[in-house]
Amino acid sequence: MAAYSKNAIVEIFELLWRETDDAHGLTANEIVERLEEHHREHGDDGYKAPSNRTVREQLYWLKDNPVLGRSVGRIDQSALPELRRRCADPQPGWYMEPYLSASEMRLLADSLMLSRLSEDTLGDLEDKIAALSGGREGYPREASHIDAFEHYNSDFLHTIEGVDRAIHEGRAAQPPDELIPRFPNGRAVRFQYCDYMLGGALEPRRRRDGSIRWYTLDPYRLVYKTGRYYLVGYLHHKHHAGAEPHDENLTCFIADRIRDLHVLDPVRTPVAHTLDRWRADGTLRDDDEPSDPNDVLDPVEYVRQRPYFVTGEAVPITMVVRRGMLGTVYEWFDAPDVSDSGQCDDEGNPMYEVVVRCPELSMMWWTLQYSTGGDVIVLSPQSLRQSLYEAGQRLIRQYRPK
Question: What tens digit of pLDDT does each residue of 85-142 get?
Fold first, then answer.
């Protein structure tokens, strides 16, 4: 294969992407040698490498005209002493800035560890992150090491892809010969929802007659919290006497436990309620009430208000915590209102008043988790204090020494 100037730039670009970074460059001569070696390895004995001059011209063109947003630069000998402070073997020459830094790759790779994927799938994704980033061959893989969970759902990536497509697909086209309104943005999805059985196997939920139960949902957002992905949406066909629609139908599913998800035809199963039909407090607007862009439910905030995810209204909760609990408060709650309570504990340390918005049941679980040392005292609402008292009574009866 003969080498032409117009071909050389592609090979040079690939070589810089794969084998250089901001501390390790390649000279024009080394690039010529790498190209010749690469073609010999692939049996291209008739290959003629571009000249040193052509390579330099292409390098300067890449420097002045970034391709795919990738910056090309040059490491001079004068820069080596500074580079040795963070790298043992810096090399002068031309280089391409990595698309992802080592720390960014670590964040992406570590986030994969939190997903319940198979070991093979995790390895494939890790390789793709490394290839996307660029840098010296093998270097990106040093950023992290991924181990798979023992129990995982092989449908996880299919679920994420389907939900993303359902949320972002545009309006369905209105048939020209039918006088029906345009369908709202997005599409509904239908799926099975699984529980873990003995031994860790996932089994779909079933009805009383033994048939598999299917769920139909208007998906709003996938939200990541405390090691899990939650799918927030409006659940179709869930009606209980005495419950308002926003209390029972605005709900959340753990994405890891969703199986066999299908994006539905909007003509046959239209979206019942788009996100703009919900007020910021999680209540559903009346059918004749116009949407208000300044008062729309934020699915991320909806999930973050719940230290443990339960549906239901988030209410103001006031508590007093010891100083050592402040870190825990800020880690569990997105926007707590913290102030000095004017009180001190038995050791003279200041106590802090904290106000958060959270469903009472979720807050009761959180408070019980940190109640062993008396570090949290709920002041209001009284209904939550009563629930904690009753829970304490049950614990006393259950664990009273015999």
Answer: 877 788 899 998 877 766 676 667 666 666 666 666 767 777 777 777 666 544 444 4
> What pLDDT, on the 0 to 100 scale, is given for residue 190?
95
For 349-361, letters b (16+ CB in 10 Å) and e give eebbbbebbbbbe
DSSP type of residue 320 = E
As a residue count, the chain comes to 402
Return the structure tokens found at 333.
Answer: 């709650």
List of long-range contacts for 156-161, beta carbons under 8 Å, 24+ apart: 156/115, 156/116, 156/117, 156/255, 156/256, 157/117, 157/121, 158/261, 159/191, 159/255, 159/258, 159/259, 159/261, 160/222, 160/229, 160/255
Q: Could you tell me if residue 148 is inside a domain?
A: no
Domain identity same for 20 and 116:
no
Look up the CATH number of the domain holding residue 328.
3.30.70
Question: Which residue is listed with tokens 């010529």?
Answer: 32
Whether residue 107 sits in one domain with residue 72: no
Whether the full predicted model's pTM is greater than 0.70, yes or no, is no
Residues 272, 328, single domain; the answer is no
pLDDT in tens, 47-57: 888 888 989 99
My answer on whether 262 and 287 are in the same domain is: yes
Using alpha carbons, select from 332, 155, 347 the residue that is nearest to residue 261. 155
Measured in degrees and rounded to the nearest 5, phi and psi for residue 162 equal -65, -40
Task: Please report whether residue 310 resides in a domain.
Answer: no
Q: Tell me whether residue 179 is in a domain.
A: no
- Model pLDDT, residue 106: 65
pLDDT of 111 reads 67
Residues 61 and 136 grouped into a single domain: no
272-297 pLDDT, tens digit per residue, is 888 888 888 888 888 888 888 888 88
Residue 164 shares a structural domain with residue 227: yes
Q: Are residues 77 and 120 in the same domain?
A: no
- Which residues span the domain enclosing 329? 315-399
Please state the separation of Cα 181 from the chain's center in Å. 35
